[in-house]
Amino acid sequence: MIPSDIDPALAICLQRFARLDAETPTPQLDYVQRRRLLSELQARLLRRQGLAGIAVQNHFVAAPGREIAVRSYHPSHHVSGKTLVWLHGGGWMVGSLDTHDDLCEHLAHYSGHTVLSVHYRRTPENPFPAAVEDARAVLQWLHQMQDVLPFARNPVLLGGDSAGGHLALATAVHAALQPHAAQAQIQALLLLYPCILPDLAAPSVQAFAQGYGLTEAAMRQYWQALGGADHALRTPSLCTPALPLLPPTAIMTASHDILRDEAEDFARQLQALPQGPRCLLQRADGMVHGFARMLVASPAARQHVEAACRMLAQVHAR
Questions:
Q1: Is a pLDDT exceeding 70 seen at residue 2?
Q2: Is 106 assigned a catalytic role?
């Protein structure tokens, strides 16, 4: 039963996802393989023709022992001259450049920024902090490629949705603690319904544990697979020496999301710092976790993504 208090278009999406899950038998796949397959199938289910006026190109970033796939989205009109590096969601385990293709196109369209989507190494094959290392490698590459690639700018904006929001925050915390690293500097952060803490103790976890897309059980499994239990950046919101040094931050939560309260608590934590960064917080009413990935099916979700772009513009304008 899909709740009646969320956006009707999102309710239809959740119904379609549930039907897709039930109608896709994969006895030969393990849990991780199945989640990745379903994530890609969900994206294909919703994908529509790309937006006009957005030039899309694939690139590869060379890093020690690996290549990192990235995809640029360059708007032809209302260009800001800035680059937004985007880290996709998916519980650190699933998600790809393709699952977040629509979102990144719309981010470029609404913001006027060139968006650079990063396909970082995923868990459980690559425990934390492998994904943060990939994000840092991309920032280093952008620094090195200035005057070579048109979107290789310094400073840059950094953002992510869900697990990608956690990775963006961890990357910014690392940059704050290593301010002289040879990488593109981070001018501002945009976090959409980010994962913050692994204990999942906030009231919203119980309120929306079932029937709203992301479940408590799935989130616990994602945190467990993340690994890196002893690594400080695994819980970047607890790295108190770095928090006052963070760039201006915009955080958007979803009203019907188990992660809502922890993200809003973190935003208020930043806002309460005497010398902390400017932080804007906005709750997207009628939305579930992952709404930005379903924006092509929901006019309301598109409006919230556009509002998030306006928030980002406000925080880095000063």
A1: no
A2: no
